[in-house]
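Internal ticket #5521
Category: modeling
Description: The requester needs a full-assembly model to guide mutagenesis choices. All entity lines are attached below as received. Residue total reported by intake: 477.
Assigned to: D.W.
Attached entities:
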Amino acid sequence: MKQTISFNLNGETVEVEIEPHLTLLQLLRDRLEMTGTKEGCGMGECGACTVLIDGKAVNSCIFPALEVEGKSVTTIEGLTDVQGNLHSIQKAFIEYGAIQCGFCTPGMVLSAKALLDENPKPTEEEIRNAIAGNLCRCTGYLQIIKAIKESSNY
Amino acid sequence: MKKFDYFKPKTLEEALTLLNQYGDKAKLIAGGTDVIVMIKQKKMAPEVLISLREIPGLDRMEYNGFLKIGPMVTHRAIEKSETIRKHFSALSDAVDVLGSVQIRNVGTIGGNICTAAPSADTASPLLALGAQVRLKSLKGERTLPLEQFFTGPGETVLEKGEILTEIFIPKPLPHTSSAYWKHQRRQALDLPILGVAVLLSLDRSTVTCSDLLCTASPISTILHSLEGDEVVCKEVRIALSVAAPTPMRATKAENLLRGKRMSDELLEEVAETAAKEAQPRDTIRGEAWYRRDMIRVLVRRMVMRGIERVLRPEETIFPVRLW
């Protein structure tokens, strides 16, 4: 039985009628055509589908879409400001070569944002811990860690 | 993913009624980090999911010497609780290494217990802490020790129509600390080859030690000097994960240590006994002989970490020390 939910997506209220078995990832990509969020493993292991729910990093591929009712969801599309300028974390990722194929990047950036919003000056260990659930098969992580560390300077 | 219907009851009574109404067709969902994955993997195919997320109060914690944890408390909330880190350290040790931040933000302690994986990270710390679980149904409620909750891999005593509503950890004795070690191949996002949790109560929290090393060196090197000091173990609980079909207590090992004076030799014997009473099996993550060997090593280390945390409580905050 379809249900209607209303939630805040990147600052705008969205009301949508969905089937109850949809994951948040399916809702974002297939229904709302926000394809910035990626599907990697689909099992909550790789972190490519990471979005923020009320500021907390969550794997959207295993999160029931119905549970975002009344909540605030941030995807990679919501990181730029109104003029379309990139977020400081995104600028740092470019500057430090923290992107290669780019598939893990949206999730990686959002995990970094969740960390920095809570802890603006994290130690390297805290950064490593925060992105432990985001797999990157290209960079070897060092550039990503560096970019997150330096992003507060942008 | 297979289709299912989804209910979000607002009260426990409503949830219990739904659970009764749909019976075998229904499955409870807490954070869903296990349930959704199992549905995707076709390991279960419920027609109805009943979410506990909107029931008020189930995500609450209450500390008053004892600790009450609601089943919907996330691993992340436990990780951030300084009260738990200080007084129920083994549980903090467990959630620190459970899944990723994304999983810990969503996954709950009640879900971890009710999925009843032999590898559940919170199970052996809760056993060591002496946890009890409260189960409610439309017929009434019952409380039982966590030992009696697990009946097999993925199986519990939960009857049809019953919901876990509270985890209760009794007030620890004075001079008590606890520790958990997850033995894993990677530092993150792995399942344990073995989990070892120990709770230890000593007869005091200070030792008169003339040796300067007493304040600086690891407990293992000063265990000999402790012998002259007659430090007595008042209470001990040793719990093991992935060492039997269910998380288990090593009661024979506990009985050897309880009431005795701490010594290096006794610890050897205790660890050896725990290794003997475990029933590990060969799996893809490790063979039985290896698990047994590691129980011997890690039980000893966790008892020592327990001693260390009682004697140097300030180090509980930064629990990383290797021997």
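Resolution: model delivered.
Comment from assignee: The interface with chain A takes residues 1-6, 8, 29, 32-33, 36-37, 40-41, 49, 51, 53, 76, 99-103, 105-106, 187-189 of chain B (CB under 8 Å).
Ticket closed.
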